[in-house]
Amino acid sequence: MSGSENRSVLLPDRFRDPYTFENVISMQGDILDCGCADLSRVEFIEPYSMVSFLLMGRTFLRLKGEKLRLLNIPMHLNQYLHRMDFFTEGVFNVTQPVEHNLMLKRSVASKRLIEITGIPNKERQSVNVISSVIALFRKRAPGILKFWMDESVIDYFVTVISELCQNIFEHSLDTGYLAIQTYKSGSENIARLVISDSGIGMMQSFGSRPDVVYGSGAELIEMALTQPLSSKREFGYGLCQVNTIVERLKGTLFIRSESSSLTALYNKKDKSGKHLFHRNGLAHFDGTQISISLSA
Amino acid sequence: MIIDVAKIAKSCKIKLPDLITRPVGRKLYATVKEKLEFAGRGETVLLDFAGVKVIDSSCIDELIVRLIQDSYARDFYIKLRNVSPISEINIDSVFSSYSNYRDRRIAVVREELGRNNKFYIGPLSETERDVIDYLRLNHRASVTDLSIFSGMEKETASSLIDGLTSIRVIKKENGDFISI
């Protein structure tokens, strides 16, 4: 932190994947106290970190009734965030708007991404949004899934988007966000789908099911992935289905809920190797955040 | 009776090619149910999914599972046609979960051979699969025929066939068993 009246939290360049973003989550208390974040050190933001940071901004707005200030956003990052509709929700106060002529062009860049889209927590509105997102995804899928192109992969993703978005309005009791992007990291092409909310997390949601017994938050996440559990119904299919599909696609799945996370590395799974990794005791972050990635 | 699901979806103003979410499943179910008022006892209702790419688990639960449940009470049979590979996976997953959690298996026959190399979707055993395939080829068989074919004792074969009849993946007619 620097200064007194105009103090800000200097954020590290840790927006590169769900694991490095834990650093930023651990600074959430300071950010919410201070109300101002300095992004001058941040060089790159991937979709999971972007959506999680948006949720952080929304939490600040809800708690304090004012917008989180963002300072010193590098130009390329600012352009990217505008392009992804990061500022459309109106939860941030940005001191340096991007000039219109410097905005990234939508027609060219639209092929490999889906901008941040709000998933409402009301069933009827949500159904319309999910339907529109899927229609848009089908249109842009040849670009997003360029390196994995196969008609069945598109259908797999449609199922995943549908299942996870429905979980938002059925279980989190809050609005959530979806974003998709294919980007290059070193020599690797990564397609990442992110669906996150800051509502009721999984442990809280399963509080209504005393018959579901688990040792830790990560264990519950694994149970929900591998068994047809539901916090609302007798049994459910959604997360199990998603897990099956990610395994078929040999992708990676990261789920974080409240203070726990689970990583499933199906791209590295072999007959004997461990591929599910639990983490507990993380800094608390409301809701459930999910990232699904394919790499090529 | 043939039910063109895509046509019904269009009439309900549901966007194709994907049938997703519970409200969509409920809307389709209500419309299909109206049509089923005209189905005769023991009739096979062919649900044709041509033009549909993805049916998600919520929609399967609200539409297909409910229709199968209705088929027990109202005495008709469900058969699927033109099910896409991803929908086959989704239906299979829903049926497996359902069968694990309720003390009752559900399965459904289909017109074309699926990616699973079977003419049905659902958690059935290899022997049950053989019986369905046999009936598909021969259309009609007695317990004796099926006992000889499967190499099972007549009593065991009878119990297995009764199980398939009770989940309505084969029909019983005048003491014989026939394919759907």
Largest sheet of chain B: 5 strands, mixed
So how many helices of chain B?
7
In spatial order, strands of the major sheet of chain A run 5-6-7-11-8-9-10
Series of H and E elements of chain A: EHHEHEHEHEHHEEHHHEEEE
Strands of chain B, count: 10
What share of the residues of chain A lie within helices?
25-40%
Key attributes of the depicted protein:
heterodimer; A: 296 residues; alpha/beta; 7-stranded antiparallel beta sheet; 4-stranded parallel beta sheet; 11 strands; globular; B: 180 residues; 5-stranded mixed beta sheet; 3-stranded antiparallel beta sheet; 51% helix; 19% strand
List the helices and strands and how they pair.
The complex is a heterodimer of chains A (296) and B (180).
Chain A lengths: L8 E2 L11 H4 L2 H7 L1 E3 L8 H18 L3 E4 L3 H9 L8 E3 L11 H4 L3 E7 L3 H22 L6 H22 L3 E10 L2 E10 L4 H4 L11 H10 L11 H11 L3 E7 L1 E6 L10 E4 L5 E11 L1
Parallel strand pairs in A: 1-2, 2-3, 3-4
Antiparallel strand pairs in A: 5-6, 6-7, 7-11, 8-9, 8-11, 9-10
Chain B lengths: L1 E3 H7 L6 E2 L2 H15 L6 E6 L5 E2 L1 H18 L1 E6 L3 H17 L6 E3 L9 E2 L4 H13 L1 E2 L1 H8 L3 H13 L3 E4 L2 E4 L1
Helix pairs in contact in B: 2-3, 3-4, 6-7
Task: Describe the overall structure.
The complex is a heterodimer of chains A (296) and B (180). By secondary structure, chain A is an alpha/beta fold. Chain A has helices spanning 22-25, 28-34, 47-64, 75-83, 106-109, 123-144, 151-172, 202-205, 217-226, 238-248; strands at residues 9-10, 36-38, 68-71, 92-94, 113-119, 176-185, 188-197, 252-258, 260-265, 276-279, 285-295. In chain A, strand 2 (36-38), helix 3 and strand 3 form a beta-alpha-beta unit. In chain A, helix 6 packs antiparallel against helix 7 (151-172) and helix 7 (151-172) runs antiparallel to helix 10. Chain B is an alpha/beta fold and 180 residues long. Helices cover 51% and strands 19% of the residues of chain B. Chain B has helices at 5-11, 22-36, 57-74, 85-101, 126-138, 143-150, 154-166, and strands at 2-4, 18-19, 43-48, 54-55, 76-81, 108-110, 120-121, 140-141, 170-173, 176-179. Chains A and B meet through helix 6, helix 7 and helix 10 of A and helix 2, helix 3 and helix 4 of B.
